[in-house]
Amino acid sequence: MPLKLGLVDDHRLFREGLRALLATQPDFQLVGEASQAQDAYALVDQTQPDVLLLDVSLPLASGVSVAREVLRRQPHQRILALSMFADEEHVAQALEVGVLGYASKDLSANELFTAIRSVGRGQAYLGPGISRVVLEEYMRMRRTGRGPETPLRGLTQREREIFDLAVRGLSNQDIASQLCISKRTVETHRGRIMRKLHVHSATDLVRLAARHGLLDA
What we know:
alpha/beta; Arc Repressor Mutant, subunit A; 2 domains; 6-stranded parallel beta sheet; globular
């Protein structure tokens, strides 16, 4: 029986190219596609894919927050994150919410097939160029609070998700919809974020993000 795959990516050309690649493998069956968070949730609920291929950088939502919500709804869903970013911070964020595999979008077709099959078997997968040793050390530093200081160090995971969406220009209501929480909860978290980062406006948040190279995070 072929592996049922779901694909979530906002770039149509990438989806079309990946769809053609997947069609060359008789043990893969693409059962649905989505380009944004809400459609991704519906895709998973309706098609129950064996593996969800998830872009980490969606336009209106962090792929990490999408993965978190997918796994809240479907705790056994296997997710392979695909991203242009392969640094330890992005990989660690994805793994910490329960993503099973992580690979850069510059991997070869054969490496992608290997990644999909590994995650489909329930095995953890890290793409070429991602050092497990370096990643484990980075995650240890995150857990213990040791390591280089960053401006977002004091934020919780939820606050970091809201920070990422806020600096992309989303309103409190939009953030609430993306994260499936109330607007009041977003406002509470946003107030805490500003106090922790010692800023006083949305503009200040964006300036801080730009200053520290965080706008792509």
